[in-house]
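Narrative summary of target 7.
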Amino acid sequence: MSQINAPADFLTALESLKGHTFRHELHVTQIPPPQRIAPWAVALQAEVNDSPSLDPDFYRGNAKFVVLYDPSGQPAWDGTIRIVTYVAAPVDQAMSVDPLLGEVSWAWLVESLEDEGARYSNLTGTVTRSYNETFGGLQLSSSRTDVEIRASWTPLTVDLTDHLQAWAAYAAAVCGLGPDGVASIRPVNEEM
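Modeled conformation, tokenized:
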């Protein structure tokens, strides 16, 4: 995406996303943003993984943070900037059947935004749990339940620092990490 002729507010938003340090389990990179949703956009992705080399055995989940900017605004946004997030993580068997999984996952997002002081409006989204079975030959070789959260909101400022930090904290929580600086015990994979 070219920043040539980008509006000042979008450039300010971009600048606010630079230079952040995240906890070591969040491996954040810039990815191509979605096309045709807004005239200007930027996207980040994080793989949440305990291993510096992204060893698949230490994978905890992934997350995306997308900033959309339309100087004309869009009616559903009630503003010119919209943040869209996606977080997905495997959950253990006991959590996967908990009827409050959706409510708790959503509450963590609201808490993360509030804890970081991220001012917003029009928060909407979904929480989905999916059960996947993988077959090799004629037998079930593995099964896994994932939780996926899709959310979007309109920030009330063009400085998105608090929103980015809230997203990072939220991704860490959904992916089973304790508070930053506190070690968490990784669950042992049980064979089914």
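The first strand starts at residue 26 and ends at 31.
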